[in-house]
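wait is this the right file?? whatever heres the structure
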């Protein structure tokens, strides 16, 4: 597993938190100081948290576990989707569908609907409908794919949730807590770390910081998957 250095974290801008006035008091122990009205995150703690998170991800996939990626903010969407596809893991990058964890069986109906429509379209079964009806089916497929495309082939809940920006994805975090799914996440100075199992205190807005985190997680997941495949 690749060792991320303090220098790499610094270069990626992981130390820049939010404005002082936006601080979540529970993040106090992860803050080193402040400069020009912005909190500076303690990168020693960032590295410690990242190392623990990477080990957990590797161990989870080494035992055959599934990791659900979530990154719906603009600067995270593409990199998270690419990482999820590279690791062959499920993902959400447009928005979190409320109830996915806590009302899974109900939301899974939308996933099954998507699968069914795609099969019928591929086999030409939808051609028996009028052009207007086919257009409506195409729109439904596009809408369902946009939200559920990343979990289209999944029938079970994952073993862990991996999040970029835990503050933005507070609903996903809350649902994971309710069903006892461990959460790994980038936690900026405006977020509540008490809901996160594997805290990586870091800037969660800068593209370089996000990419560093996502790439490190990708490598850890792939390493674990390789171990699992070798055992099988």
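ok assuming it is, sequence goes like this
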């Amino acid at each position: 597993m690749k060792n991320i250095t303090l220098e790499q974290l610094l270069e990626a801008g992981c130390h820049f938190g939010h404005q002082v006035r936006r601080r979540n008091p529970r993040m106090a122990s992860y803050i080193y100081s402040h400069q020009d009205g912005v909190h500076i995150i303690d990168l020693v703690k960032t590295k410690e948290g990242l190392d623990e998170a990477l080990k957990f991800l590797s161990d989870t996939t080494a035992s055959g576990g599934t990791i659900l990626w979530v990154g719906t903010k603009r600067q995270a969407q593409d990199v998270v989707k690419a990482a999820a596809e590279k690791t062959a893991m499920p993902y959400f990058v447009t928005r979190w569908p409320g109830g996915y964890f806590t009302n899974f069986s109900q939301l899974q109906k939308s996933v099954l609907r998507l699968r069914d429509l795609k099969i019928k379209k591929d086999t030409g079964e939808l051609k028996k409908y009028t052009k207007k009806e086919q257009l409506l089916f195409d729109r439904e497929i596009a809408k369902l794919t946009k939200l559920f495309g990343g979990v289209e082939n999944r029938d079970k809940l994952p073993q862990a949730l991996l999040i970029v920006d835990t503050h933005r994805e507070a609903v996903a975090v809350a649902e994971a807590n309710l069903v006892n799914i461990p959460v790994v996440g980038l936690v900026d100075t405006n977020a509540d770390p008490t809901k996160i199992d594997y805290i990586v205190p870091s800037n969660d807005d800068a593209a370089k910081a996000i990419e560093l985190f996502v790439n490190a997680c990708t490598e850890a997941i792939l390493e674990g998957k390789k171990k699992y495949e070798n055992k099988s």
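The first strand starts at residue 16 and ends at 19. so i think its the right one actually
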